[in-house]
Amino acid sequence: MRARFLGKDPESQVGQSPTLFATDRTDRKTFIAQGWVVTDRQALVDVGPVPEGEAIIEIPEEVLKLYARRYEEGEH
């Protein structure tokens, strides 16, 4: 699987780069999101158990807009 850079949070500070990538999987469309590990106790309680091999991350709205922009530009 390869990952193609779509963009990063334009307000990121050096060393912090919430980023979105598209993969080239052929069985389904997937994305890789790089973000901040969620450590807030209440947020973890609200989300509930996270299965082995998975993680929850926090990403800024600007990173989600990169996803929306991909579809607005016709990149399905």
In whole angstroms, the N-to-C terminal distance is 18 Å
Widest beta sheet: strand line-up: 1-2-3
Task: Output the structural class.
Answer: alpha+beta
Shape: globular
The helix tally amounts to 2
Strand content: 25-35%
Radius of gyration: 14 Å
Uncertain spans, ≥5 residues at pLDDT below 50? none
Would you count the extended β strands for me? 5
Write the layout of secondary structure elements.
Layout: E1 3-8, E2 19-23, E3 31-34, E4 36-37, H1 41-47, E5 57-58, H2 61-72
Antiparallel strand pairs: 1-2, 2-3, 4-5
How does this model look, in words?
- There is one protein chain.
- The protein has 76 residues and is of the alpha+beta class.
- It has one domain.
- The chain has two helices and five strands, in the order ββββαβα.
- The protein has helices at residues 41-47, 61-72, and strands at 3-8, 19-23, 31-34, 36-37, 57-58.
- It has a three-stranded antiparallel beta sheet with strand order 1-2-3, covered by helices on one side. A two-stranded antiparallel sheet has the order 4-5.
- The chain is globular.
Q: What's the gist of this structure?
A:
The protein is α+β, with helices and mostly antiparallel strands and 76 residues long. Helix content is 25%, strand content 25%.
Key attributes of the depicted protein:
alpha+beta, 76 residues, 3-stranded antiparallel sheet, 25% helix, globular
